[in-house]
Design brief:
Elements (H helix, E strand, L loop, with lengths): L13 E5 L1 E4 L6 E2 L1 H15 L3 H8 L4 H8 L6 H15 L4 E2 L3 H11 L3 E4 L4 H11 L6 E3 L12 H9 L10 E5 L2 H9 L3 E5 L5 H7 L3 E3 L5 E6 L6 E5 L6 H26 L5 H22 L13
Parallel strand pairs: 2-5, 2-7, 5-6, 7-8, 8-9
Antiparallel strand pairs: 1-11, 3-4, 10-11
Helix pairs in contact: 1-2, 1-4, 4-6, 8-9, 10-11
Length: about 300
């Protein structure tokens, strides 16, 4: 979970209502990174390409798209489906659950809430992992071989919403849960709200991709209930990332208050004044102004948390 220790995940809880939830698989529900690393390194040896080089850009993308770059002769669904279907069988012990994912999926299943898996993996890979990990099995899913373009193209998430009967729903009522920048961009391009889990990528990458919330893992996303008549699902998002611009807003307020006090002090000393005191106040004000400029470099805005409205 990269660089989480240097970020502030303490934003106040928010309650929202959604008509559907669309989950990415790897890095969101499970973390099979060690297994995928072994898979690509083994495949890299077969095709004569450094596995680490492939891994730099493979996460969150379809294998067929990665192979189209490095080994075009293998970029076909027959090969990819067979190869990916072996990953849970060969490396099943290398995968773990993302904290909180099992509980959330079980909650959704228990009340019959509309949810689906939308993944860059093939159907054999997804079903293999769900069986090995014994996780809730969705009634609907969208897998890599079902769309012409993979993430960050929005087609996969649009298809996911359609399969849940929400093609014409308000986009703001559909929640995407992702861990990869490509997936975050796909969800936002579809017009949906996106929670990004900081499980596999840097915070700045998720922020730049446009995530509405950034959280450590799925423990920050909980179901509060489901309306039996409308089917709307209540979701609470807690301990999201506090944005750097919130720190700037606080700094601006402090600097402004201090500056005003110093200006008053200078004006009071101006007539009967003791020149050294005036010079001291002036120097302090100059230093405060400089510090204000430094704080401004942190970033703009005054949102209290990292949440794009």
């Amino acid at each position: 979970m990269p660089h989480q220790e240097s970020n502030n995940f303490s934003a106040p809880s928010e309650a929202h209502n959604f008509s559907a939830l669309l989950f990415d698989m790897d890095g969101t529900i499970i973390d099979s990174t060690p297994a995928i690393v072994k898979y690509w390194k083994a495949l890299g040896k077969q095709i004569g390409v450094d596995g680490d080089y492939i891994l730099e850009t493979s996460h969150g993308r379809r294998s067929v798209d990665v192979l189209a770059i490095h080994a075009p002769h293998l970029a076909n669904w027959e090969y990819v489906c067979k190869a990916e279907g072996q990953i849970p069988l060969d490396y099943g012990h290398d995968a773990i659950e993302v904290p909180g994912s099992r509980a959330l999926l079980d909650q959704l299943e228990k009340v019959g809430a509309p949810w689906a898996i939308v993944t860059s993996g093939t159907k054999p890979l997804v079903t293999g992992w769900l069986n090995v990990m014994k996780l809730a099995f969705p009634k609907n899913m969208v897998t890599a071989e079902e769309v012409q373009k993979g993430k960050p193209d929005p087609a996969c998430y649009q298809l996911g919403a359609k399969r849940l009967g929400k093609a014409n729903a308000d986009p703001n009522e559909i929640l995407v849960l992702e861990d990869a920048p490509a997936g975050v961009r796909a969800g936002k391009a579809a017009g949906f709200k996106v929670v990004a889990l900081a499980t596999t990528h840097r915070i700045d990458q998720l922020r730049d991709a446009g995530a509405d919330w950034i959280v450590r893992d799925m423990r920050s996303v909980t179901m509060t209930g489901r309306d039996a008549k409308t089917g709307i699902v209540g979701i609470e998002i807690s301990d999201a990332l506090v944005a750097r611009n919130a720190l700037q807003a606080l700094a601006n307020a402090v600097v402004l208050k201090i500056s005003n006090r110093i200006k008053v002090a200078i004006s009071l000393n101006a007539v009967p004044a003791s020149p050294p005191h005036v010079r001291e106040h002036s120097h302090t004000l100059s230093r405060i102004t400089q510090l204000h400029g430094n704080f401004s470099n942190i970033g703009g805005g005054s949102d209290l948390m990292y949440h794009r409205l």
